[in-house]
Amino acid sequence: MAGGLCRLLKQKYNIFYKIPFYHSPSTAVIFGKASYCTNSTDDWRYKKDIDDPAFKQLDLSFENAKEAYKSKTTFDLIRAWMVFELCSIEFLVNNNKKLMKVGRKVLGKKLFKAFMKGSFYGHFVAGENEKTIKSVIEKNKLFGVKSILDYSVEKDISKEQATKQEEESCVSENQPENITHTGPNVQYRYHTQFADRREEVIAARTHFYEDEKSCDDIMKIFLREIDGVSGSTNATGFAAIKLTALGRPQFLLQLSEVLERVRRYYDVIAATIPAGEFDVVPAIKRREFERHLKTRKIKRSERQLWYTILDSSGDGEIDMLDWHNLLEVNVRLGNLLKTPNAETGVFEPIVTSFTVSEEMQMKNMLKRINTIVEYAIKKDVRLMIDAEQTYFQNGINRLCMEMMRKFNKEKAYVFNTYQCYLKESLSTLRTDLALAERENFFFGAKIVRGAYMEQERKRALTLGYEDPINVDYEATTKMYEDVLCEILFQAKRLDKGRIAVMVATHNEDSVRYTVKKMKEFGISSSDKIVCFGQLYGMCDQVSFSLGQAGYSVYKYVPYGPVEEVLPYLSRRALENKGILKKVKKEKRLLREETWRRFISGQLLYSPQGATVST
C-alpha cells in the first residue's frame, strides 16, 4: 500500500521510496529530519539565485497604496474602509446574524439587497451568478490577478437541525449497538456534542447532508462553476469544491478510520522486516504480507480478498484502495471498509454491513466526484479540493491522491490542500510527493495554515485523543515554511511543471518568505510552479502588488444570491475581527490612497488596466 507504507516509513525510519538520486550521502540528511529551509543556502543542488524582473519590481513591504489600489475606484476604497471599520466594532460583529435578519425585515427585500451590495456583499462577494461576476474576473485579470470561483451559498439551519442531519448521515443503520466510543479510533466516531461542525469555525464553509437529490444539485452547481471558470478565465482559473458537499459523510469518516487502522497494522508488519530492507523496497511485497497473515492464521479466502483490494494492479505490491477499485471493482464498499486487528490479525468490519441504500449513497458520492473531475478536464479547468476536519481528512486526502493518479497524467488538474497547523502536515506531504513520483503523475498542492483549530483542539481534549494541532502559532509557521521548502526542492529536482503549489495566505511574512525562497531555489515567477492565493475583498495590498509585479496570484472569488450568502458574510466579518492588526494596516493604506486622490484631484479615478510584468 503506497500511502500506508510511505506513512509507515516516515514514522519509523523517516525515509522514502529509493531512487538513484536519493543514494547520495549528502542528500540523506535532507531526506531525514533536517529541513530544506535549514539547508537550502548550503547545498549547490538547489541554490541558484536568479535574476527575476518580478522580484526586482515587487515592493516586499506592501506599503505602496497607489500600486495596491490601481484596480479600485474611489467608491471601492471608501466602501472597503467602511466595511473594515464596522468589522472592528465588537457588538456589530458578535450580533451580525441577528442584525442582518432585523435589517431584512425593516428594509424589505429590495432595499436590504441594495444596502448589502453597497456594503458587505459588494466588498466580499463578486456577484450573484457566473454571468454577473465575469466583469469582476476580467477587471482583476487586467491587473494581474486571476480567479478561483467559489459558489458560497450556505443553508442557515438551526443547531438542532444540523445535529439531526449529521447523526443521520454519519451513523449507519447497521452500526453495532456495542460499538466503542473510547480507544484509539474514537476520533472517527460520531459524537453528538460535535455534530454541528460550524461551531468555532470561522474561515470555512460547512455542508450538511440532506439527501441524494441535494447532493446531485450541488454537483450541478459545481459543474456550472466549472463552466464559469472556463468561460471567463481562458484556462487560467480554478474551481473550488468540498467533498463533504457531494455525499454522505459517513463514507469519509469510515474511510479515514480504515486508513488509520491499516497504517497501524502495517506498523506491526514493519516490525518483522529488518530496517535495512526498506532501502530497496518501494512497497511492501505481497510475499511479506502473505507470510505475516499466515502466521496469524488468517483464512485463505480473506487473504485473497485483501490481495484483490490491495494489489489491484497485479504487480505483487500492496497498494490499498486505488481509485479504479473504488469505482469499478465488483466488491461491495462494505467489504473494502474492513481492517485487521493489530493484535490478532483478524479482519473486522467498521460496520456489520452497509444497507443497500447506504452502499448506493457511497457509490453515488464517488461517481459525483468522478463526474466533476472529468468535466473539469474536458473544460481545461483545474480543481482545488478543500481540506476539512481531521476525522474526514485521511479519506479526503486519499481520494485526492487517487484523483491525481487517475487524472493528473498530462498536467496538474487536481490540487490537494495541506493544513500546516497539523503535526502530520510535512510527513503527509512527503508521502504524497513520493507517491506522485513513483506513479509518474503531476502533483498539485495548496498550502494553508488551517481553518478548524479551536474545534479540533476542543474535540481532541473532550474525547481523549492526541491533539492533532501544532503546539503554537510559531510551530505552525515553521511547519508552513518546511512544507513550502519541501515542495520547492522537489519541484526544482524534478522536470519542470511536475509539481505546482498555491501558497494560500494573508500573512505578509509568509509571502515575503516564499518570494525569497523562490529566488534562492532558482524558481522564476514565470515558471508556473508557485502561485499565491487570497480571499476576494481581503489583503489587496498583497494580491495586486504581486500580480502587477508579474507573480502568479489568485483571488478566491465567492458568488451567490445576496440572501443565500449571508452565512459567508457573517464568517468574513468574524474573521476580520480576529485579525485586527492586519486589517489596521489595510485601513491605513485605504485612507492614504483616498487622501492622495483627493489632494491630487483624482477622486473620479477610473481603473484602466495595469502594465503587468512578465
Low-pLDDT regions: 1-34, 39-46, 276-282, 319-324
Tell me the overall shape.
globular
Content-based structural category: alpha/beta
Proportion in helices: 40-55%
The tally of strands reads 10
CATH topology: TIM Barrel
- Overall mean pLDDT: 80
Strand order of the largest sheet: 1-2-5-6-7-8-9-10
Radius of gyration using CA atoms only:
25 Å
CATH class: Alpha Beta
Q: How many alpha or pi helices?
A: 26
Distance between the termini: 43 Å
Main beta sheet: 8 strands, parallel, barrel
- Report the portion of residues in β strands: 5-15%
Second CATH tier, the architecture:
Alpha-Beta Barrel
Number of domains: 1
Can you give me a brief rundown of this structure?
Helix content is 51%, strand content 8%. With 614 residues, the protein is of the alpha/beta class. Helix 22 packs parallel to helix 23 (508-521).
Comma- or semicolon-separated keywords:
single chain; 614 residues; TIM Barrel; eight-stranded parallel beta barrel; two-stranded antiparallel sheet; 10 strands
